[in-house]
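Please produce the structure of this protein holding histidyl-adenosine monophosphate.
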Amino acid sequence: MKVQSIRGTHDILPGSVELWQEIERTARDLFGLYGYAEIRTPVLEETELFARSIGIETDIVRKEMYTIEDSKGKSITLRPEGTAPVVRSYIENGVSSEVPVAKLYYIGPMFRHERPQKGRYRQFHQIGAEVLGSDNPAIEAEVIEMLFRLLQALGLQDFTLLINSVGCPVCRPAYVDRLREELRTRAGELCEECRRRTETNPLRVLDCKVPTCQPAIDQLPAIADWLCPECREHFSLFQKYLKSQEIPATTAPRLVRGLDYYVRTTFEIVSGRLGPTQNALVGGGRYDGLSELIGGPPAKGFGFAMGMERLVLLLSGRADLGAPYKPPAPEIFLVHLDQPAFEHNLGLASELRKAGIFAYVDFEGKSIKSQMRQANRLNARFTCVVGESELQTGQMTLKRMADGSQTTLKRIEIAEYLRKEK
Ligand code: HAM
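Below is the modeled complex.
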């Protein structure tokens, strides 16, 4: 039996990885300008962390976590998201006593046992940022401005920002009660899952994607009408700050998000090109209270996570992530005719690399013809054939592969010549 990769996971090969690196580089540079520092938390956490923060009635915790028992019987889980681990680390490392407002970002793999399809995987990657210690709506607008700048810097244009407020523990319970009452009267129009959620977590009904539920969902009361004065004020200030940054936003009264820790502001950035159901590129919001849920001191928090696979799909325009393997192209491929030339080329390649030039030497002891073929396959910019006469005269001829033109140089001049040619 041939061993293969696990369903819902994928390899990122040379040829594709360069785009991932560019995204990461652009994000790191930009986030730095806003004061964010990178945090790397473990991929494994106690299951309890996610159960308490994301919520035991969410799809993620009920059905999608990769959970195992370790040898001591402790339940541990491959992280399905990055916010709870960051907050756990923030508490555990006493970050709040170091700085009043901590700005942290992360890039890494997350794991959810979902049914794989385009844009939905079991191992996927997120770039996320969290700001802890502030409940100012202006910081929410700043985070979104940073996101817009990132997407624009990467050349993405067709995306939409959806915003909503999901209230707080003061105003939400009354809305949830009202929602439940309404859902009970409409039970006959709802799918089985929504009927179950009516009792366990009625807010989740709002993001049900089953087409037959939509007419009933459209008739449900909107949370915006139930917000307390403080939440209303917070949301209107958030909108004001977005406006002053000239960030267009669409209010989406049913945007409640699939994680229970949110209060007040929630948002998504969606793109029609991702398809009708998996259209969210970015999800985020405020989560004051999450810290307390996991045993920490009160802490305010706001952040987002962007799905890297979805971003790559949008930027590459490819329908899948399986771009074919493509090795990097050498600046110069050093061809040898015999063993002394091979040994010479090893030294020359080493010198060129010290000068910052990607030089390639063939190790397979193949004929000159097969070395030239390999240079072509690798798309080398220059080749240089070295044999007895080159070793004697110290003169080497560089051939530009694009047009076949040749330049003869002393060995010592090669690095400078290639540097200018770059
Ligand atoms: P989320 O909406 O669950 O939020 O995920 C954020 C993004 O991760 C999604 O918009 C999507 O692009 C990507 N994503 C999620 N699941 C998958 C999957 N199975 N395959 C591919 N991509 C996926 C969170 O994770 C929150 N922690 C965001 C946050 C940060 N809220 C506050 N701070």
